[in-house]
Predict the structure.
Amino acid sequence: MEGPSIVILKEELKPFLNKKVQSVEGNTKQPKENLEGKTLKKIVTWGKMIFLIFSGNIVTRTHFMLFGSYRIDDPRENRIPRIQFNFPNGIVYFYACAFNMDAKESLESLDQQVNVLSEDWDEKYVVKLLNDQKDPYLCDLFLKQELFAGSGNIVKNEVLFNLRRHPLTKLSDINSRDRKLLVRAVRDYCENFYEWKKKYELRKHWQVYKKIKCKVCERKLKREKLGKGQRSCFYCSYCQRKALAKEKLVLHEVLPVTTKGPKEKRLDH
DNA sequence: ATAAATGTTAAGAA
DNA sequence: CTTCTTAACATTTA
């Protein structure tokens, strides 16, 4: 689950703010009983993590990793949740996630200035942090949570396409004047991701991720594990050819959010 | 049916 | 000390 999905989860959990946990269930090894009788005081997200802050100084952290999912008032059949919160006004189920109940220090250590969907996100600050990087490939750079908290493999691939850059472009190929745009491209795409996902139309807007053909030149897209992280890269070997590496950076406009159209099945991204 | 994947961490090796 | 490799976790989709 990438960052924008976590922000949506935060919004879906707002009805439980200031509500008391009546009981908890689930197969977590954490001391979940300590949450019984506690009140959900605050919800904070950072990248792909969501922190639920309860009375009694309890800070929980949940990361849904690759396969995690959640439900509200509608449990999955034949699945035991990692943690389940029974509130007076509804039930929250978290499945297949990393759930931690001792996350106070973790939360305090995080910098919202790099959290792509935070109000405190700071473009200039992130540009400054880029100077401290060695010289990563862009396909690795866009996955670094310490710079782009919340960006994931979908965001990475789509942003590389929007910037028309090959995944193996080096950060040093992007001159200092263009780096602002590099950073902004991630933020912009995450905002689109958020809006599209809320309308259940995220997949419809994928331009390269899991796609076969380039929508611009119609060539067959490449799909390779590239960079230090060896994560899947989907890209057009022509529109994102390496020879463009040092060209002036342009953010190609992403498609607008549609107002009508068929709904797609809600998936847990 | 087999593999790959919207992700990260820890342990051990080099 | 740093960097790399592997395993672990757990589920859906192609």
